[in-house]
C-alpha cells in the first residue's frame, strides 16, 4: 500500500490530503504538524478551519485511511511520498525583508526529512515557493542523504478558500513539475497515478520543475491583476457616472477576457495574492528585470490605492472626521464562505438606532443600494454613480 505523509496541517495540507484519502482508498494518508492544537482540532468534531464540505470528507476517511498526528518523524520515515505544505510567509527581516518568501519552515522540514528517511522518497513541494526552490531543497536532501534517493517534484496548489473542496474534487488542472531524468519522470508518473484516481488525465499537466514553480506565482499575479484592473476602472466610473458592474459585464462578455474575477471591491485580501506578488517582484529584481518587477508591483499599488480610496470616502463623507463616531463592519472575513453577513434583515433596525445622517459604504457591491436609500441611508457603492451627498464631498479627506 502506498503511504503518503503531508507536513503541514493547514488550509492546504488538511483539505488536500482529505480529498486524496477520499478518492484513493488504497492509499494511507497521514497529515502531520508541529502544532498540537491544530492536530487535536483535526481529530475532534470541530475542525480547525471552516470549508464547505470539509467536515463530511474528513468524517468519512478519518480513522480509515486518513490520520492526523504530531508524530512528524515517524510518519515521514514510513512514507513513499512526502508532501510539504508548510507556510511560506513574506520575510519580515533580513535579506529581501518585506518581499521575499520566508523559507525557514520549508528548510527545517527538508532537513528533518533527510534526517529521518531510511528509504527512497518522492518529496513534493505543495507550498507556494520562489522559482528554483526545488534546487535548494534537492541540495539539502542529497547532501544529508546517507545514500537514500530523493526525487523532488513541484505540485503547487490552486484551491481558493471557501471553495477548497469543490476546487480539489474538480480542479481546472493539476500541475506536476519534475526533473527531466528517468528518475524524475518516474516520480512524476507516481504522483500522476495518485491524482488520476479522480482527475481526468488531460487536466494533469506535467512540466519541468521551474515552469511548475513559476506557474503558481504567475497564476496568482494574473488573477490579482484582473482585480486591480477592475478596481482601477471603478475609480474612473465614480468620476464619470459609469457603473462598474455594467462595464465589467460588458468587458467580460468578450470570450477572450471572460466574466470571472471582475468584481470591483475594496481590494483583494487573503493570505496569498499580496505575498506571492511581492515574491514575484523580488525574484524579478534578483534576476535583473526591474521593468518586469515594476509592472507587477503596480498590481499591489493599485490594491493599496483602492483600500485608501474607500477609507477616504468614508472620512470625507462624514465631515472629514470619524473620531468619536461608531462604525460597524459587516463581513470582516476577506471573502464569502469564511464568515459572511450579507443581507442581514437587521439593517432597518440598525437605521433607526443610528445617528443621522446614516451611511452605508459598500466595498463589495453586495447591498441593495436603492432599498437602503429608500430606508434613508446615504449609500456609497464602489464604482457606482455617486449619491448627491458624496458628489458634494471631496474624494480625498
Ligand atoms: N491558504 C490557501 O488558500 C493556499 C492555497 C494555495 C497555496 N497555498 C500555499 O500553501 C502553503 C501553506 O499554506 P496554508 O494556508 O495551508 O498555511 P497554514 O499556515 O494554514 O499551514 C501551515 C502549517 O504548517 C505547519 N508547519 C510549519 N513548519 C512545520 C514543520 N517543520 N513541521 C510540521 N509542520 C509545520 C504549521 O504549524 C501550520 O499548521 C503556503 O505556501 C501557501 O502560500 C495556500
Ligand atoms: O472579482 C474578484 C475576485 C476576488 N476578489 C477578492 O480577492 C481576494 C482573494 O480571493 P480568492 O482568489 O477567491 O481567494 P484565495 O483563497 O485568496 O485564493 C487565491 O489564492 C490562492 C493561494 O495561492 C490560490 O490557490 C487561488 O487559486 C487564488 O484564487 C478576496 O479578498 C476576494 O474578495 C475581488 O475583490 N474581486
TrEMBL record:
Example GO biological process: glycosaminoglycan biosynthetic process
Pfam families assigned to the protein according to its UniProt record, in alphabetical order: UDPG_MGDP_dh (PF00984), UDPG_MGDP_dh_N (PF03721)
Identification of the protein by name: UDP-glucose 6-dehydrogenase
Domain of life: Eukaryota
Organism this protein belongs to: Gossypium trilobum
Catalytic activities: UDP-alpha-D-glucose + 2 NAD(+) + H2O = UDP-alpha-D-glucuronate + 2 NADH + 3 H(+)
Cellular compartments per GO CC: nucleus
Protein family membership: Belongs to the UDP-glucose/GDP-mannose dehydrogenase family.
Keyword list, A-Z: NAD, Oxidoreductase
UDP-glucose/GDP-mannose dehydrogenase N-terminal domain segment(s): 3-186
Organism lineage string: Eukaryota, Viridiplantae, Streptophyta, Embryophyta, Tracheophyta
Keyword tRNA-binding among record annotations: no
EC top class named in words: oxidoreductase
Enzyme Commission (EC) number: 1.1.1.22
Amino acid at each position: 500500500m502506498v503511504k503518503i505523509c503531508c507536513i503541514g496541517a493547514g488550509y492546504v495540507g488538511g483539505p488536500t490530503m482529505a480529498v486524496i484519502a477520499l478518492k484513493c482508498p488504497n492509499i494511507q494518508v497521514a497529515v502531520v504538524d508541529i502544532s498540537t492544537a491544530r492536530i487535536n482540532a483535526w481529530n475532534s468534531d470541530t475542525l480547525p478551519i471552516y470549508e464547505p464540505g470539509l467536515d463530511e470528507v474528513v468524517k468519512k476517511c478519518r480513522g480509515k485511511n486518513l490520520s492526523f498526528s504530531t508524530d512528524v518523524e515517524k510518519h515521514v520515515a514510513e512514507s513513499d511520498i512526502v508532501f510539504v505544505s508548510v507556510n511560506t510567509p513574506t520575510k519580515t527581516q533580513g535579506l529581501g525583508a518585506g518581499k521575499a518568501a520566508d523559507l525557514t519552515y520549508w528548510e527545517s522540514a527538508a532537513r528533518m526529512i533527510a534526517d529521518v528517511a531510511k528509504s527512497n522518497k518522492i518529496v513534493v513541494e505543495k507550498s507556494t515557493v520562489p522559482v528554483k526552490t526545488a534546487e535548494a531543497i534537492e541540495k539539502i536532501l542529497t547532501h544529508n542523504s546517507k545514500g537514500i534517493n530523493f526525487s523532488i517534484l513541484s505540485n503547487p496548489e490552486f484551491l481558493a478558500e471557501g471553495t477548497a473542496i469543490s476546487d480539489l474534487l474538480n480542479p481546472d488542472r493539476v500541475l506536476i513539475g519534475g526533473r527531466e531524468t528517468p528518475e524524475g519522470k518516474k516520480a512524476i508518473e507516481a504522483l500522476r497515478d495518485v491524482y488520476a484516481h479522480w482527475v481526468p488525465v488531460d487536466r494533469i499537466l506535467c512540466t519541468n520543475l521551474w515552469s511548475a514553480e513559476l506557474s503558481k506565482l504567475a497564476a496568482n499575479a494574473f488573477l490579482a491583476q484582473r482585480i486591480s484592473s477592475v478596481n482601477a476602472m471603478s475609480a474612473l466610473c465614480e468620476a464619470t457616472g459609469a457603473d462598474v458592474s455594467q462595464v465589467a459585464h460588458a468587458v467580460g462578455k468578450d470570450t477572450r477576457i471572460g466574466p470571472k474575477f471582475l468584481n470591483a471591491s475594496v481590494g483583494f485580501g487573503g493570505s496569498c495574492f499580496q505575498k506571492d506578488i511581492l515574491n514575484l517582484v523580488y525574484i524579478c529584481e534578483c534576476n535583473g528585470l526591474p521593468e518586469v518587477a515594476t509592472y507587477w508591483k503596480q498590481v499591489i499599488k493599485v490594491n493599496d490605492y483602492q483600500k485608501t480610496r474607500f477609507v477616504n470616502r468614508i472620512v470625507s463623507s462624514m465631515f472629514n472626521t470619524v473620531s468619536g463616531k461608531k462604525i460597524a463592519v459587516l463581513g470582516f472575513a476577506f471573502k464569502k464562505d469564511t464568515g459572511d453577513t450579507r443581507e442581514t434583515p437587521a439593517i432597518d433596525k440598525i437605521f433607526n438606532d443610528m445617528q443621522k445622517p446614516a451611511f452605508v459604504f459598500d466595498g463589495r457591491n453586495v447591498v441593495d443600494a436603492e432599498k437602503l436609500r429608500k430606508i434613508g441611508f446615504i449609500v456609497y457603492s464602489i464604482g457606482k454613480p455617486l449619491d448627491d451627498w458624496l458628489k458634494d464631498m471631496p474624494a480625498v479627506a
